């Protein structure tokens, strides 16, 4: 089994990245290919899951060991295949998904791609007692119950919300915008106007 790959990102598409490992290109399907930055001389590590089916052998990749672990637990649930599991990871932070399952929050789970009420109930029944490895904060619980805006991950309001709406209008997804924010947030000043933050966010997205 291939547990992880380390190499250079050779290409990135909407559903997968191509990782160059010592001259061999591995196509790795991801929940969000933009989570991995394209660095000319830098290496990146993808934690992977090797999935075999009758018509194909597929690799799925994750930026963290926690996402890899959650993905494997999700596909063990009856009725959830790799595509749906990736949709779940793309639709919410792993910690928030875990919090929703542990708190039996069907309303949050049914908002995730490919998850209906029966599947949400099955997730809770099968995984509630098994998901103890991921740390869940009070904020994760609040997000899962809709008490906190997930885009306000760093406790900021106002200007970033305006910038994020601008990015969404340009065609970027919420996940892409949030990942851009995670990169630029340490450099953003409270006094920075929206146009300055927008420029930084676009630069971050270009470099991903």
Please characterize this protein's 3D structure:
- This protein is of the alpha+beta class and 208 residues long.
- The chain is built from nine helices and five strands.
- A five-stranded mixed barrel has the order 1-2-3-5-4.
- Strand 2 (16-21) and strand 3 (24-30) form a beta hairpin.
- Mean pLDDT is 80; it is low at 136-157.
Q: Please state the oligomeric state of the protein chains shown.
A: single chain
* Average of per-residue pLDDT values: 80
Output the structural class: alpha+beta
Order of helices and strands: EEEEEHHHHHHHHH
Query: What spatial form do the alpha-carbon principal axes imply?
Result: globular
Query: pLDDT below 50 for ≥5 consecutive residues: which ranges?
Result: 136-157
In what order do the strands lie side by side in the largest sheet? 1-2-3-5-4
Described by strand count, sense and barrel closure, the largest sheet is:
5 strands, mixed, barrel
Number of strands: 5
- DSSP helix count? 9
Radius of gyration, whole Å: 18 Å
Q: Give the N-to-C terminal Cα separation.
A: 28 Å
Residue share in helices?
A: 40-55%
Work out the strand percent. Answer: 15-25%
């Amino acid at each position: 089994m291939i547990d992880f790959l380390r190499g250079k990102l050779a290409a990135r598409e909407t559903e997968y990245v191509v990782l160059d490992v010592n001259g061999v290109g591995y196509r790795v399907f991801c929940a969000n290919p933009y989570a991995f930055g394209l660095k000319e001389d830098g290496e990146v590590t993808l934690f992977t899951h090797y999935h075999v089916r009758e018509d194909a052998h597929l690799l799925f990749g994750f930026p963290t060991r926690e996402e890899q672990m959650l993905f494997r637990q999700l596909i063990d649930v009856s009725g959830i295949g790799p595509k749906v599991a990736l949709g779940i990871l793309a639709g919410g932070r792993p910690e928030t998904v875990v919090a929703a399952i542990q708190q039996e929050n069907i309303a949050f789970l049914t908002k995730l791609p490919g998850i209906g009420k029966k599947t949400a109930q099955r997730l809770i029944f099968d995984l509630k007692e098994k998901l103890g490895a991921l740390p869940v904060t009070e904020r994760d619980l609040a997000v899962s119950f809709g008490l906190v805006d997930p885009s306000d991950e760093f406790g900021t309001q106002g200007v970033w919300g305006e910038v994020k709406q601008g990015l969404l209008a340009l065609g970027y997804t919420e996940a892409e915008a949030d990942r851009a924010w995670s990169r630029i947030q340490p450099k953003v000043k409270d006094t920075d106007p929206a146009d300055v933050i927008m420029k930084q966010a676009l630069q971050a997205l270009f470099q991903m």
